[in-house]
Specification:
The protein has helices spanning 20-37, 48-63, 76-89, 111-117; strands at 8-15, 68-73, 103-110, 122-123. A 4-stranded mixed beta sheet has the order 3-1-2-4. The protein has 4 helices and 4 strands; from the N terminus they run E-H-H-E-H-E-H-E.
Length: 124
């Protein structure tokens, strides 16, 4: 079990009013993109150091119950802000974003940072 009290979870952020069929499709694709980034041998592999960090976080997440939390964002600008701050500035593992997608998969990552980035979203 996780030795510290630090919690980890994966967040799925969905643009409000996105049709269910699109959510399902983008969630599957987003998860595949996320996993491929951290799999050695894949073209999009991010590197040994990043993969090791991801593995440590991933293992803690699994040990803690592999919690996934779902959030809704009211508008695309809010999603852009989350992607920029969490992914670009803090290097939170994430699915692809910026090509018209309506779903953003983040993490797993430390709960306090994801809570900070998602404070303006509504949890499902």
């Amino acid at each position: 079990m996780n030795q510290s009290n630090e919690r980890f979870y994966q967040a799925v952020v969905i643009l409000k009013d996105t049709p269910e069929a699109i959510v399902a499709k983008e969630l599957v694709l987003g998860t595949q993109v996320l996993n491929n980034q951290y799999t050695p041998g894949k073209a999009s592999y991010v590197g040994k150091f990043e993969a090791q960090q991801f593995k440590e976080t991933y293992d803690k997440w699994v040990e803690g119950g592999a919690e996934i939390r779902v959030f809704y964002a009211d508008e695309r600008l809010e999603m852009d802000d989350i992607e920029y701050k969490a992914v670009s500035l803090e290097t939170v593992p994430a699915s692809g974003w910026g090509n018209g997608e309506s779903v953003l998969v983040l993490g797993p990552f430390a709960a306090d940072r994801l809570n900070f980035h998602l404070e303006n979203c509504t949890e499902a």
